[in-house]
Amino acid sequence: MANNNRIFVGTFAESTSLTNFSVKIGYISVLNGKITQKGFIDEFEQLEKSGVLSDYEIIKLSKDQFLIPGFVDCHTHAPQFPNIGLGLDRPLLEWLAKYTFPLEKKYQDTEFAAKVYDQVVQRLLKNGTTTACYFGSLHMEGTLELVKSAINHQQRALVGKVSMNKINEAGYYNDTEKELKEVETFVQTVIALKNDLVEPVVTPRFALSCDKILMDGLSKIANKYNCRIQSHLSENLQEIEYVLETNDNCKCYGDVYDKSGILNNRCIMAHAVHLTDDELKLLPSRGVSVAHCPASNTRLKSGLCPVRRLLNASITVGLGTDVSGGDNATILDAIRRSMDVSTYLELQGQPNSALDWKEAFYLATLGGAEALNLDDKIGNFEVGKDFDALLVDVYAKGGQIEKYKDTLETTNEEYASDLLQRFVFLGDDRNIVQVYVKGVKVKDNL
Ligand SMILES: O=c1[nH]c(=O)c2nc[nH]c2[nH]1
């Protein structure tokens, strides 16, 4: 049975929308990486009896285990991992100049890049991030190392070579023509790999790093190859002030990108903390999604993103860890911080702001998949989607969730939902005992 055909029998939890969450006890069958069938336990027992399952590995989960969809990290900076936990006493623009640009410059060295990226990809997979949307660095060869690492370790990844052409103190920018050539070559190279897990993303860093000529050119490349485009938007008040000062024909930050044709339904913007009412209309009208990055918004004191306002404005939102502005690379942390930040807003007088754990779970799975336009492939256990999943053992040995004698009389489904709730609030990588990407087991601690 060397194939990856498996049937999982036990509890599985998933979202089908922000408000629709379900926990079921049954089975999921996976053939050639795809979910082919789903049903109740008695249906599985019939299949088992009929002998049609001989080609499958059957995995029966214990009462304390369950399957959830793999986590989606909509925004992180792979080259910044060596700086995790450093410089967070500075605001965004100072932090970029003093810590981030000097580190990112080092990825000129492809050997260094390959080493760091290999660690990054493995670390994220171990923590259940089956899909990541990455910023690389300014360097084409270095960023191709990130592509290689994702492919080698079987992570689903959208990878961007960062574009910058505005002069900065660190000397970390490119000549415009060279930059556009390199981006096109990067996009062509990744597409030519024909790897079904990895795609290129056109990545203007932000409006303070790219002038209009560069952004127009990047927008053309993204349209020509039909690829995604990612950047940062309205993260910090000082940043917004400088953007508006240097673009006097624009009435809001979003306008700067819109004038270059960057805002469309293949675009994901990180942060969006301080959107104006006009931007709250502009983004959904263009189909732009947002990567909500609560850790970095708090650490760099950028602000508390009013996620509920974004959701109410029909903006599609996923979660981002945003290392190293964010100090934690795991989506479990982003889930918790999204609940915290939204709760602070409610406590400060914005009614109904707080996200509950089921909503945060949606943002981390299906919401992220929708934000990256990957929800036809991943995000939940719909039949026909790829099997990207985490097998969670709530009371795994060495983990920090302790088992007490059950105190409540519950149905099996309620018990399972309580388990998931505990994992969401308290779990970590020790509870994620197996990780699957497109049906391939990429972590096994069972
Ligand atoms: O959190 C952030 N991290 C970055 O690297 C960056 N660059 C521009 N704006 C940014 N914000």
Question: Can you give a write-up of this model?
Answer:
- Belongs to the metallo-dependent hydrolases superfamily. ATZ/TRZ family.
- Catalyzes the hydrolytic deamination of guanine, producing xanthine and ammonia.
- Its EC number is 3.5.4.3.
- GO terms for molecular function: guanine deaminase activity; zinc ion binding.
- InterPro entries: Amidohydro-rel (IPR006680), Guanine_deaminase (IPR014311), Metal-dep_hydrolase_composite (IPR011059), Metal_Hydrolase (IPR032466), Metallo-dep_hydrolases (IPR051607).
- The chain has 446 residues and is α/β, with parallel strands linked by helices.
- It is built from 14 helices and 17 strands.
- It has helices spanning 41-50, 92-105, 110-126, 140-153, 176-192, 212-224, 237-246, 253-258, 277-286, 294-299, 307-312, 331-347, 357-371, 412-426; strands at 6-15, 21-31, 34-40, 57-60, 65-69, 71-77, 129-135, 156-160, 162-163, 198-204, 228-233, 267-271, 289-292, 317-319, 389-393, 432-437, 440-444.
- Strands 6, 7, 8, 9, 10, 11, 12, 13 and 14 form a nine-stranded parallel β-sheet that branches.
- Strand 12, helix 9 and strand 13 form a beta-alpha-beta unit.
- Helix 4 runs parallel beside helix 5.
- The chain is globular and about 70 Å long.
- The model has no long low-confidence stretch (mean pLDDT 96).
- The site of xanthine has 11 residues, from helix 2.
